[in-house]
Amino acid sequence: MNITKENINELNAIVTVKIEKSDYEVTVNDTLRDYRKKANMPGFRPGKVPAGLVKKMYGKAIVAEEVNKMLSQNLSKYLVEEKLNILGEPLPNEEKQASFDWDTTEDFEFVFDIAVAPEIEVKLDKRKKYPFYNIEVDEETIDKQIEAYTGRFGENVKVDESADKDTLRGDFVQLDAEGNELEEGIKAEQVIIAIDLMKDEEVKQAAIGKKAGDVMVFDPVKVYENKHEVGHLLNVSHEDAEKIEGDFKFTISEVLRFEKAELNEDLFKKAFGEDTEIKTEEEFRAKIKADLEDNFKLSSNYKFALDSRDILLDKIEMELPEEFLKRWIKATNEELTEEQIEQDFDNFMKDLRWQLIKDKLTKDNEIKVEDEDIKEGAKEMALSQFRQYGMSSVPDEYLNNYADQILQNEEERRRIVTKVQEDKIIEVIKENVNIDEKPISLEDFNKLLEK
User: Fold this and answer.
1) Phi, psi angle pair for 88, to nearest 5°
2) Domain over 2-116 is classified CATH 3.30.70.1050
3) Tally: H helices and E strands in the chain
4) Angle, nearest 10°, between helix axes 410-432 and 371-388?
5) Which fold has domain 155-259?
6) What is the pLDDT of residue 384?
7) What sign has the CA pseudo-torsion 283, 285, 286, 287?
């Protein structure tokens, strides 16, 4: 076997792989002997099928499999040993790659086009200012977070008389055209309906001022303007919901009003765990502020990463083999049209350039992602997911177990490795440039992200 490389220019090259009969012959013959031992053909005893017949039946397929295996393994090995930082994957050369007949060809020549990543230099210095936005936690933001906590841990309480924001619990019974209860009609017990969600203004006003024991008669389809929603309300199938028409009698058993949780130790424990040491509203506000600052820091770092990417992309010029890359995208995404590739090509090139910059920073700064880093990344992801459900304080045992579950998913593990590596790259940038800290309100920060 012989592999050679011909440079077309600094970014493109041709790699030729020659595989001769002597390279694969021994392996193919060994495989054919194994096939002969196992062959079971009418008219021949097991293991006694003529070698020529076995070769005629299986020889081409075995040669093709062995040659392709040798090609793949040795081409990959060559690219690694030659330290060729290629872009995409080798593609068959459209002009020089000859076709051949597997039945008659003994020596094979494969010709590939490859694209080589350009050599770039990434200089980070203190002369360049990189903006870093410190999001201010003001009293209004803390108040909104407290409002969210008191709402999340609030509850419905019974009241004597309904108001416009209350809910009613009661029993539905379907009526006939004369207003009598239908024996075979739809009945639903202990249904809860929200007054403010009623779309019929007349019925909504009639629902205000009601007490337990009061009766209302109305058409639920008219009130909610959606038969499937009414079907869900009455716990009937979609098919039966389509048939619903006419009035129902609704007998109220309870009037419920949602009351937010009070600012007391019970709420503090629900919000931050039974072990919390928070006793007062001031301590509660201080804890919320600290948590918001941590969360905002994540957002600030995210924005810093975006800005750093844009600064470095503008600063570092690099030439890329665009023609090859378009061919490679098409070859690996056959469902894409030429128009679609052209439409998104600029974004692809931007992502590729940023990846090359990150690779260079990783190499120059000897950035490594260790198992411990990956585990910490998984724990951060787990904690973030717990926080979405209002669980700010999670015992280490649960956090570790959940992180281990996340890492069992290979796709999630790859995502975490990528994020950990990018976080390390951003830290390197921070350490080597001039950070221009800018205080900013949450509202203005969100506007920046929208641009």
Assistant:
1) 70, -140
2) yes
3) 15, 11
4) 100
5) Chitinase A; domain 3 (3.10.50)
6) 80
7) positive
Q: Give per-residue burial for 186-201: e unless 16+ CB within 10 Å, then b.
A: bbbeebebebeebebe
Residue 116 near residue 14 (C-beta atoms within 8 A): no
Q: How many CB atoms lie within 10 A of CB 292?
A: 19
- pLDDT at residue number 74: 95
Quote the pLDDT of residue 362.
95
Strands 434-440 and 129-135: parallel
Query: What pLDDT does 104 receive?
Result: 87
Q: Which residues contact 87 (CB under 8 A, 6 or more apart)?
A: 115, 116, 117, 320, 321, 324, 325, 328, 352
Q: Which two tokens stand for residue 312?
A: 């470095």
Which listed CATH number (1.25.40, 1.10.3120, 3.30.1450, 1.10.150) goes with 129-144+277-450? 1.10.3120
The residue extents of the domains of the chain are 2-116, 129-144+277-450, 155-259
Angle at 167 between CA 215 and CA 143, to 5 degrees: 160
pLDDT of residue 29: 87
Residue 196, phi then psi, degrees to nearest 5:
-70, -10
The pLDDT score that the predictor gives to residue 414 is 94
Q: Which pair of tokens denotes residue 31?
A: 């495989």
- For residue 2, the one-letter residue type is N
- Phi and psi at 335, nearest 5°, equal -75, -15
Strand partners for 435 = 130
Which pTM value belongs to this model?
0.73
Q: Name the stretches of the chain with pLDDT < 70.
A: 43, 45, 48, 389-394
Tokens 């918001």 map to which residue?
A: 292
Exposed / middle / buried, residue 10 (Cβ in 10 Å: 0-12, 13-18, 19+): exposed
Q: What's the distance, Cα to Cα, between the start and end of the chain in Å?
A: 56
Produce one character per residue of 80-117: b if its CB has 16 or more CB atoms within 10 Å, e if not.
eeeeeeebbebbebeeeeeeeeeeeeeebebbbbbbbb
- In terms of Cα–Cα distance, which of 288, 325, 290, 352 is closest to 150? 288
Count CA within 13 A, CB hemisphere, residue 27: 14
Q: Are 170 and 253 in contact (CB under 8 A)?
A: yes
Query: How big is the chain, counted in residues?
Result: 451
* Beta strand extents in 310-357 (DSSP E only): none
**Looking at residue 282, what is its pLDDT?**
96
Residues 6+ apart with CB under 8 A from 61: none
